[in-house]
Amino acid sequence: MRGSVTVREGGSFILGSEGGTGGGTISGGVEARFAADVELYSARVNGGVVISGGGVVSLSAVIEDSDINGGATIRRYHGSFVGFIGNTVHGTVMVNRNAVDQMQQVSSNTIRGNLICHRNIPGPVLNGGSPNEVSGHKIAQCADL
Questions:
Q1: What is the mean pLDDT, run by run of 10 residues, along the chain of 145 residues?
Q2: DSSP-assigned beta bridge partners for residue 95
Q3: Which residues does residue 14 pair with via DSSP β-bridges, in sequence order?
Q4: Distance (Å, rounded) from C-alpha 104 to C-alpha 142?
Q5: Among 45, 48, 104, 143, which one is least packed by beta carbons within 10 Å?
């Protein structure tokens, strides 16, 4: 896709599928404010990803097996699950103030920047994934991930 993707309040955006099929390239970043569901699988995003607010009990915010140039933020999401798994990121990753029913998995990422996790309920876990490779600092709840 040329340009950016904006997911509006209550909307859903799913690119690719779990297991590495599909995906695609977004040349201008992804911004989701108060979206119900955002899932990126095997995507390339130039311009970063911001998921802020939103969520629905049975839905998720997931970024998996993707390449992101420009950093990634998942904050104040209130759904079932937050997953940030197996990504390569050129920029800082922030997972802050999320409250989910199941878990928040932050694992197996390569991050060229910092990994910052604050005030998440429950706190992020590896959940069987490998530790994150971070060139900067692992801060707060992500210090041991």
A1: 91 89 89 96 96 90 97 97 98 98 97 98 96 98 97
A2: 74, 117
A3: 39
A4: 11
A5: 143
